[in-house]
Specification:
globular, seven-stranded parallel sheet, alpha/beta
């Protein structure tokens, strides 16, 4: 059955349901038709999603979008900024590292791109509000927001200081609330926009030695999923959401971390160039969830299917319980 035929069937079922509702032909019959209609719609979306894996996905044109990226002075934040500039976006880049930020701005301008840089501590709600106001006044309304800034302590919970825990949650999750609340209202008003969260596979699977980091990334994933549904149920369909859950990216942030058979179920290392390219691709195709590498999808699914004890055994076999023991991190450098 083609997708077109399924679509016609959906319309026909909807007509029958409406007829039964208004003519009072019985609650049971109406409910049966409504459930059948629901099943058809679910099947339609499953088939449509499956076709996306086979056929080329339609891409939206990013030319002229005003894109704001946090944590843009290094790592994938820098690479995403450069790639979005190549796509014709006007860039607004934020970071605490003013020197690194200006270096990225010079790279973008050297390619003919338009960029505005602002030093901003995303942990500070007042500073986010003030900087966002400057962006609106000096540049315009942001239509593509990428919450990329992130930090990691790399210590077990009882070895983390109170300051470390609060900082991790603030940068990796709470700051998303502040930036989204600044730029989402205009997106909703215009029924146009895109919000991206650079979360982590650690937002889908708990990792020993990274409790604070995992908690912050789980929070970021939960924020994006619930906000996406909140906007969807409000009737706005022009604002898109993409949650990115990559494995280890070789930016130095997780230097020293080692898994056994890393690529088997999605714990393999990714180059920053590959990750940035996949993220831009996900934005252009309005992909809701992007997990990297592909094994990460399997890993996330398995933990919800298998018993907890079985999952624990598998993770132990893959070295997940000791992977953070060799953590070094990006010593002496500003976290992305």
């Amino acid at each position: 059955m083609s997708l077109t035929a399924i679509l016609y069937a959906l319309v026909a079922f909807q007509g029958i349901i409406l007829f039964l509702h208004f003519t009072g032909k019985g609650f049971i019959i109406s409910l049966a038709f409504e459930f059948s209609f629901l099943c058809l719609r679910v099947f339609y979306h499953i088939a449509r999603s499956g076709m996306k894996w086979i056929l080329p996905r339609p891409r939206k044109n990013l030319q002229g979008e005003l894109a704001l990226i946090t944590g843009a002075a290094s790592g994938i934040g820098r690479l995403m900024s450069l790639r979005l500039a190549e796509k014709g976006c006007k860039l607004v880049i934020w970071d605490l590292n003013a020197e690194g930020l200006e270096a990225v701005a010079k790279e973008i301008r050297a390619t003919g791109g338009i960029v505005y840089s602002y030093k901003c501590n995303v942990r500070d709600r007042n500073e986010v509000q003030e900087t966002a106001k400057r962006v609106r006044d000096e540049v315009g309304h942001v239509s593509l927001l990428v919450n990329n800034a992130g930090i990691v302590t790399g210590r077990q919970l009882m070895d983390c200081s109170d300051k470390d825990i609060i900082a991790t949650l603030d940068v990796n999750a709470v700051s998303h609330f502040w930036t989204i609340r600044e730029f989402l209202p205009k997106m909703l008003e215009c029924n146009h926009g895109h919000i991206v969260s650079i979360a982590s596979i650690a937002g889908l699977t708990g990792v020993v030695g990274a409790v604070d980091y995992c908690a912050s990334k789980f929070a970021a994933v939960g924020l994006m999923e619930s906000l996406r549904r909140e906007v969807f149920t409000s009737g706005v369909n022009g604002v898109q959401f993409t949650t990115v859950c990559p494995s280890l990216i070789t930016t130095g942030m997780f230097e020293g971390v080692k898994f056994r058979f890393p690529s088997l179920v999605g714990f393999g290392s990714l180059t920053p160039e590959y990750a940035a390219a996949k993220i831009i691709d996900a934005i252009e195709t309005n992909q809701t969830i992007l997990a990297m590498p592909r094994g990460a999808y399997f890993s996330a699914a398995v933990q919800h299917i298998l018993p907890t004890d079985a999952t624990d055994l598998l993770l132990k076999f893959l070295g997940a319980d000791v992977a953070m023991n060799t953590f070094i991190g990006r010593k002496g450098k500003t976290p992305e």
